[in-house]
Amino acid sequence: MNSWDSALGDKTSTVLVYVLIPAVLGLVAAWSVHGRRSNSVPVHSNGVSRRRKIVRDPAAGRRTPVLPLIKGTISRSEDHSVMPSGRRNVGRTSSNRPPPPPQSNQLLNDDTHKSKTFGPAENVGSKVVSPKHIPIPSIPQDGKFVFEVIMFVFTGMTSFLQFLHLYRTVWWLPQSYTRFAMNFYLIDPYLVGFIVTILGRRLVYCALCKVLMWWSPASLWPILQQVLRLLLLGLVLSSLVLCAYHIMQSHPIVNIFYLCYPISVYFILFGLSVSPFFDVTSLPPLMKEECKGRTIMCKPLHNCSMSPQAIREEVEVLKTDFNNRMKQILFSSVLNAYYAGFVPCCFAQSFLYYDVYWATQHLAFVWVGCFTMYIVHCYPAKYCDVLHRAALHLGRWVRIDGRPSHIPAHMWAHSTLWHQGAFVKHCRELYKAEGISNAAEPGNQTHARFYAVFNNPSVFLSSLWGLQLSLVIIQILILASSSEWYHVVSLALLLFANYYTLFKLSRDYLICWKVYKAEQMIQDKIGG
User: Fold this and answer.
1) For the chain, which residues make up each domain, given as ranges?
2) Residue ranges under compositional bias (Polar residues) (predicted)?
3) Rounded distance, CA 491 to CA 364, Å?
């Protein structure tokens, strides 16, 4: 027992020394620290006490909401609300106080800020997606020389048919005094020479250009072309003046104005330029400068660019070229129909009787046929695809009526390429972008028309195809109801030429429709 008591006494003394004495010292230190912290209250403290780590309150897991700071000094009576972690709680009177309501001026400023227009966006161009293009497959097209041969044969044939309508005979009758189907002696040979000179000038020019390209170096082609045009113009004018002089000998001088009338129209449309007289696809001056010294004919090309200025400049060049070609198409088709169908009737003898209705109908058929043939030649599928690609980069703006003030919009800027669905303000109007890439100027009718026509060129080709198909159907119906032999010959020859144009239009339309339908699906996926 004594040994057990001595051992227990040693253990008790060890516990007192190693446990109780440090515990007492720790309590005293904690009490002193607590007294010092209660005298100076920090506003913001991130420290955590050791007591908080050991003993946790059940409500300590929930984070207390951050309350707004109230200006003023904190009284000493509120010092008892300091948490052991050093974070100060606001008194009961301040916690029940509702937050101050927003001022009326602040509400007005917020509303006006919503309706304000933002300035030019700096990062709008980063949202723009470049349109994806599907290349048009290679479609065989008639060359320049081949087309001029076809056009000369067509216009020469229609001129012959108009003379047939005027000077036909009844040569099959036994009492007929002639063995020919036409009264050739009534036709003025100088009038025929005048018409052939006008209709065949481009064929001669193309043939001579072929010879020059074959025998001369490429660097001399532009100069030789200019010299050839001047020399050929002198020969054509000399021939026309000679024929007109002989025509004046047998016809009234008033009829000479019928021959010279298209010359005044030419000067109004083209001025003193000689190139449109011989070349149906004459180029604007800007495109000539770019192609000088490289090739005879420069076809317009498309350059995928993310610069709005470059896109608008390209569209302007393509628009000028398209208008020049359309002006040439209208003038050439009217000129061919004028000399092939109208001039023979003007110089018919006064005692001659002919069917005016049929001659006028033939003139209309010739004009529409020449117009569609020139359209197919000057606007092939490859050319329309170039304009289509430029139109996709140009985009379109749609004006929004009503001027809603809640829509955030930027001020339109020349140097910004806008993405699809962007809202801009320009000239006090609100516009929305509907193209994948939008470089057009809002409210610019030229840009709007360019996009409307060439956004889908298959619509343009379908309208031409419908016009040519209507022409063919009308001619077939008239042919089915005709009984005169010269009516049958005339319509059969016209149908033979119009079938060829209808075939090329149908082929181009079907190819473009398939290609642009697939391209539109890709654009919808990109835009969506």
Assistant:
1) 1-39, 144-376
2) 38-48
3) 13
What pLDDT, in 10s, does the model give residues 232-277? Answer: 999 999 999 999 999 988 888 888 888 888 888 899 888 888 888 9
| Predicted pLDDT of residue 124 | 55
Is the torsion defined by CA of 493, 494, 497, 503 positive or negative?
Answer: negative
Q: What is the DSSP letter of 443?
A: T
Calpha distance 16→22 (Å, rounded): 9
CB neighbour list of residue 269: distance below 8 Å, 6 or more residues apart: 276, 327, 331
Helix (H) / strand (E) element for 426: namely: strand 423-426
- Among residues 199, 163, 186, which one has the least CA distance to residue 341? 163
Amino acid at residue number 326: M
Average pLDDT of the chain, as a whole number: 77
Calpha distance 142→227 (Å, rounded): 26
Give CA–CA dist 360/393, Å, rounded. Answer: 45
Contact 208, 228 (CB under 8 A): yes
CB-based contacts of 305, cutoff 8 Å, min separation 6: 311, 314, 393
CA distance linking residue 391 with residue 372, whole number of Å: 24
In percent, the amount of the chain with pLDDT more than 90 equals 38
**Any alpha helices (H) in 16-117, and if so which ranges?**
21-39, 50-54, 92-95, 104-115
Beta bridge partners of 400: 430
Let me know the angle formed at the C-alpha of 64 by 63 and 70, rounded to the nearest 5 degrees: 150
Alpha helices in 352-396 (DSSP H): 356-378, 381-394
Q: Exposed/middle/buried for 121, CB within 10 Å: 0-12, 13-18, 19+?
A: middle
The answer to whether the beta carbons of residues 131 and 436 sit under 8 Å apart is yes
The three-state DSSP-derived secondary structure of 148-202 is HHHHHHHHHHHHHHHHHHHHECCCCCCCCCCCCCECHHHCCHHHHHHHHHHHHHH
Phi-psi category of residue 421: left, alpha or beta, with phi > 0 → left and psi -120 to 50 → alpha: left
> Counting every residue, how long is the chain?
528
How far, in Å, CA of 325 to CA of 279, rounded? Answer: 10
For residues 343 and 195, the answer to whether their CB atoms sit within 8 Å is yes
Q: For the chain, what is the total number of helices (H) and then of strands (E)? A: 18, 6
Which H or E run contains 23? helix 21-39
Taking the C-alpha atoms of residue 422 and residue 412, their distance in angstroms, rounded to an integer, is 10
- The answer to whether residues 396 and 435 touch, using CB atoms and an 8 Å cutoff, is yes
Contacts of 285 (CB under 8 A, 6+ apart): none
